[in-house]
Design goal:
alpha+beta; Alpha-Beta Plaits; four-stranded antiparallel beta sheet; single chain
Length: 89
């Protein structure tokens, strides 16, 4: 499986309340329960986007998850490496 970063354009995302974020998360979990070879790792909410990290067999599975869940999926980028402050020490 590979790791991918997904960009989701969602105007007003930063204004979503706790219940709305819960509902989005629950819907994602429902869709994932019916799929194999895909796992949601974590997401970050910004003013107008969600940035999500998924482990998946291929980017097509990520697009299918978005389609089934009714989520935007504007860009899927494979992660080719990671860096942190520790990398430079």
């Amino acid at each position: 499986m590979g790791r991918y970063v997904i960009e989701r354009e969602l105007p007003g995302a930063g204004e979503l309340d706790e219940q709305q974020l819960h509902d989005i998360s629950a819907r994602s979990n429902e869709v994932l329960a019916g799929m194999s070879d895909i796992e949601w790792v974590q997401s970050w909410v910004t003013d107008d986007k969600l940035y999500c990290v998924y482990d998946a067999a291929n980017p097509e599975d990520i697009a299918e998850h978005a389609r089934q869940g009714g989520f935007p999926c504007d860009r899927v980028s494979p992660v080719t490496g990671t860096i942190s402050p520790e990398t430079g020490r």
